[in-house]
Each structure stands twice: as structure tokens, then as C-alpha cells.
Amino acid sequence: MFKKLAVLFYIGSIIGFYSCNLEKSVNVELPPYESQKILECYLEPGKPFRALLTKSSPYFSELDFSDLTRILATILEDSAKVQIKYGNQTVVLTNTLSLDQINEKVYNYSSTELVPADYSSEFELEIILQDGKKITSKTKISPPVAIDSVRVEYNQEMKARALTYISDNPNTKDYYRRMLNLNSLKDSIPKQDFLADDQILQGSTRLVFGSGFQFKKNDTLYNSILRINKDYFDFLSSVKNAVSNNGNPFGQPGVIFSNLQGTTNALGIFTGFTTVRDTTYIR
Question: Where are the domains of the chain?
Fold first, then answer.
């Protein structure tokens, strides 16, 4: 029996050796790449009107990170006319760089005016590019949802977990983004960052977001809950799926959801939301 296994192993090794030597390089001709305009514009009450307008690059293009100015010139779409209308107001965004340190985002269009806590008006975005083509979109700011309570529980090893409770309106279709940061909002990647809708409640009106038993004494937890609209929910879901598929050689290419319209090939999101946050100290 042992000799038979040895012979089979030997034959398999020979086949594998010749298979490696028979490999051939295949050149795949890609179609001409058409660059797209990419937009992210988030309306958050109490924060400035801001937008990030960029242009996409080919997947295999190389970027020289030693020259930041050149990278910005390659990526950013400048010299556009950007305005947002709501009610009888028109806000013009100027082409200038600004930084959102909390969310670690850079914007190249902004205004000194602050987004109002207006949950009834429709906001209309209009962008006119250098070539005269337009990008348009409409959205509303989703009203905030209150955090009812945050409860801390301990296991036998005295590790802590946090349970965050909110009340859901059973008469509306609601979507949420839950984020949980540890010890810092500026310098930490969220321990949790996921989406949920109220379909999971199945008749209940109380929603709870939990964590694992992974926290210890003197930790500080930042619980953030965003009530978002369906457009933003679909956009974030599609981005997460695309990132996941990008690392899977057998996965289908991800399609990014976009709520942009207009006369040019544009992709992205224009949406509004309010972040509600509760800080919890582990004692």
C-alpha cells in the first residue's frame, strides 16, 4: 500500500512540474478607459456645506505619492460651479480645500454657511463642470434618532460589552448606520461600522446594537447612531460589497449605487443625516 501511495505521489509531482513549465503569459487587451466624475456631498446640520468632486483613474494607473500636489491635480475636479438650493435659499460652494478631522475626509468645495436643521425641505444640488455638463441630485436630511440608553455588561473575565438602545417608529421605513469608536473619534478606526434597517425588528419598536466582550476598565466608548435615507443605505451597501468583491478573484465586479443625474457620466452620493452620539466610560 505504501509503495502504491509513493508511486502516485511521484506521478503527481511530475505532472505538477510539467504543468508549471507549460504555463503561458496571456495579454488581455482592455477597452479604452472612460473617466467618471465622482461626488460625495453630505449635509449635516451645524456643519458647513461641503462637497468632494473628483475624477476616477484607471485601475492599473500608478500614482507618485512623493508629489502630493500632482496627485491632487490628477484626482480633484476643480473650477466647477457648485450650488445647493433649499426653500428660497441658494448656497454657493467655492473651490477651496477643507478638512473634516472627525470623519477624516477632504473636500474641495465648501461654504462658510452652516447646514440648517431642516428635516422637511428638499435640497437640490447643481454642479456645472468646465465643459458645461451638469451633475444634479435631490435629497432630504434624515431627522435624528434618540439614543434611549447604553448599558454596559461584564463577563466572568471582567471584559465589558456595550448595548445601545433606540426606539424605532413602526409607521415609517427607517435605515440606520451604527458606529462604535474606542477611546478616540479622530485617531481610531471604528470597532463597529455597519448598516441596519427596521425590517429586523419584526414587530418590535426597540432596536439594540450590541458589541462583543472586548472592552476593559478605563476604556471610553463613543456610540454613534445615524438615521439615514435609503439612497445612502444603498450607496454604502454597494461600496462595502464592491470592496469585498475586489479582493475575490472569483467575485463579480461590484456596481456602486448612485443618486446623481445630469448630462455627464457621474457616480456618487448626495445625502443628509444627523449624527447622535453617546459617550460611555467603562468603570
Answer: 37-143+234-276, 147-228
List the grid coordinates of 163: 448595548
pTM of the model: 0.83
Residue 268: CB partners within 8 Å, gap ≥ 6?
Answer: 37, 38, 39, 40, 41, 235, 258, 260
CA distances from 103 to 59, 100, 244, 269, 273 (A): 25, 6, 22, 16, 14
Alpha-carbon span 267 to 100, nearest angstrom: 22
The answer, yes or no, to whether residue 56 has pLDDT greater than 70, is: yes
Q: Does pLDDT of 112 surpass 80? A: yes
In angstroms, rounded to a whole number, what is the distance separating the alpha carbons of residues 144 and 169?
12
Q: What is the pLDDT of residue 11?
A: 45
What pLDDT is recorded for position 63?
65
The confidence score (pLDDT) of residue 100 equals 82
Residues 160-180 have pLDDT tens digits of: 999 999 998 888 899 999 999
- 2, three cell numbers: 505504501
**Sequence-distant (≥ 6) Cβ neighbours of residue 282 within 8 angstroms:** 152, 160, 215, 216, 217, 218, 219, 220, 221
Cα separation of 263 and 218, whole Å? Answer: 54
> Is the domain covering 147-228 a CATH 1.10.8 domain?
no
